[in-house]
Amino acid sequence: LNVIENQYGALFYPNGICVQPFLLCQNLMQHPHIHIVPECFNPTIHQADVVILAMGKKMIDFLPLILSRGQVHFVENAKIPLKSAIISRNGYIVPQMDGKTTFGASFVLNESNTCYSATEEKQIFNNLKQHFPHLEALPNQARASVRVFSPKRLPIVGKMPHHKNTFCLTALGARGLIFAPLLANFLIQEI
Question: How far apart are CA 102 and CA 94, in angstroms?
Answer without folding.
Answer: 5
